[in-house]
Write a structure and sequence with these properties.
This is Accessory Sec system protein Asp3. It holds the Pfam family Sec-ASP3. One of its GO terms (biological process) is protein transport. The protein has one domain: Jelly Rolls. Strands 2, 3, 4, 7, 10 and 12 form a six-stranded antiparallel beta sheet that branches. The longest helix has 4 residues. By secondary structure, the protein is an all-beta fold.
Length: 156
């Protein structure tokens, strides 16, 4: 049974390393659950650094989905708690996919906050951290919260 939680902001942490993480030449240090330092001074711009998924195939990668289910047509805000050197050089991207894994919509923000509406034709979504000329960043967590003006829901 799926229970609906009203107005709850669950923190999403770095989590385990996976094949979707950019590891080549990178130094990733986890000091605590909510403090991961990522260093790579030669990182190309546009590279995906970390990926979280709302749907995964456990038999392929041994990882459970790390994102909550969202309600179609509802507004949400994704807020990332991190600092980068130089500043504003890590971008957050959300990619919405249809039933066949084809991207139907994507949004990118460089300020760590992203407001979005979950598309009607979306079946799953992914959150990516992208390099935009970064050398180092400290990642704490991110949250996905319903837009308070509409009373949306996050399904857990």
């Amino acid at each position: 049974m799926i229970t609906i939680k009203q107005q709850e902001a669950r923190r999403h942490y770095w989590g385990p390393l996976s094949s979707a993480d950019y590891l080549w030449g990178s130094l990733i240090q986890g000091f605590a659950r909510d403090k991961v330092v990522f260093k790579n001074p030669l990182m190309p711009s546009g590279q995906i650094l970390k990926t979280w998924k709302s749907m995964s195939n456990f038999s392929d990668n041994r990882l459970a989905p790390s994102l909550p289910l969202l309600k179609r047509g509802q507004s949400y805000v994704l807020d990332v708690s991190m600092t980068s050197t130089p500043s504003h050089t890590v971008m957050v991207e959300i990619v919405f996919q249809d039933r066949f894994g084809v991207a139907v919509k994507r949004q990118v923000a460089s300020d760590g906050s992203l407001a979005f509406v979950y598309p009607e034709n979306a079946y799953a979504y992914e959150v990516h951290l992208l390099s935009a000329g970064m050398q180092e960043f400290v990642f704490h967590y991110f949250t996905i919260t319903p837009n308070s003006s509409e009373g949306a829901e996050v399904l857990a």
